[in-house]
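Customer ticket, subject: "Can you confirm the structure for FAD-binding domain-containing protein?"

Message body: Hello, I'm evaluating your service for our small team and ran a test protein. I'd like someone to confirm that this is what the system normally returns, since I don't have a reference to compare against.
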Amino acid sequence: MYGGPPVVVVGNGPVGQTAALLLARWEIPTVVVDAQERREVVGSRSICQQRETLDIWDTVGAGKAIADEGVTWRVARTYYRGHELFHVEFADSSASPFPPWVNIGQARVEQLLDERIADAPLVDVRWGTTVTGITQTEDGATVETTNGTLETPYVVACAGAHGDVARDAVGATFEGRSFGDRFLICDIRCALPDRELERRFYFDPEWNPGRQVLMHPCPDSTYRIDWQVAPGFDLDRELANGDLDRRIRQIVGASDYEVVWATVYRFHSRCATTMGRGRVLLAGDCAHLMAPFGARGLNSGVADAENAAWRIAWALHGWADPRVVDEYDGERRAAARDNLAITSRTMDFLVPQSEQGWAHRRAVLERALSDPAAQAQIDSGKLYAPFRYGDDPNPVVGALHPDHTVRAAARRTSGEFLTHDNLVVRPDGHVVGLVRD
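Agent reply: Thanks for trying us out. I re-ran your input and got the following:
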């Protein structure tokens, strides 16, 4: 059993929580530090949790609870100026205990993961602890904080978009662009039984002309609504003069409603020039930022955490050459670049940056009213799927191998885990990792 100092996880959001819980599952202790004084339960934020993300959380005992509390939406409808262009229906997979998508607010996910951490003695959470510096040596890293110094073999930095200290530690810059367009998010509690299992996307509705609106169902009769709004939009002014009420009434009609949360934001498309070097790995928003259409931010961050955790665990237990950790950067940055390419195409369609782009969007939407073939060109957000192997004999770097059962002689290595060839598997045959020679 590993007996050295704990791994330091910077950031106690869902990505950091996942990394710590997975490391604990591999019998590796962690210290999780976060600059906030306590957990803040604010707004829905990242709401769409994908099947493989639920599967990762299930390995630490939280997947079923998250899925049970969430809303499984079955239909995605797309509209243009009041006309439904098409809809897509989602079916459960008989190969998985989880549905394709579950909507549940990030704050509630954090609470459910906190409950698992409370039962994990190998995870030490330290709130109110800001990281001020990270330096590396050949054998580990020194983490300077406002509450003292931590010596650690590895750092998993899940510090969010402002994780400059961690990015500096690996010599990374945060390349990309920011979009000037602004979006309004509201969480609305309202009884709308006709929409409780539907995602709705509206292009150019008469009540938000030239822009779009996205509507998602959430637990407790709550709906997450995103409006693209005009430059200079002022939420306080809209609240004061009644415009927000009028905006919401255009969607919910005369139904009673409650505004649970409202905020204004803009999107970014950025990727760190390296996601890991030496003893420091970047994960989640600290490594990549992307527009939320398609639900790729949190889901890809959880995949980062899973990849980092098993690699660090195998290196520290001596089950693999420590160079196995070096491969994290190539794998997860390839996945990040793929996600960013997809979300950038989405944003180019949703928010064109040129007159030519706007003309193309209008033409596609107009043709789609009568030509089903044009529907394939409409991009309201390609939904997240894990970065997978291709069909050719050469695997794509960073791909997630599809689940399958291994029925062959295997060697037990530690606890419940076994190996066969280069695969790390559970006794039920579920592949949880890959070790290269």
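A couple of notes from the result: Confidence is low (pLDDT under 50) at residues 405-420, 426-430. The CA atoms of residues 68 and 150 lie 38 Å apart. Feel free to reply with more questions.
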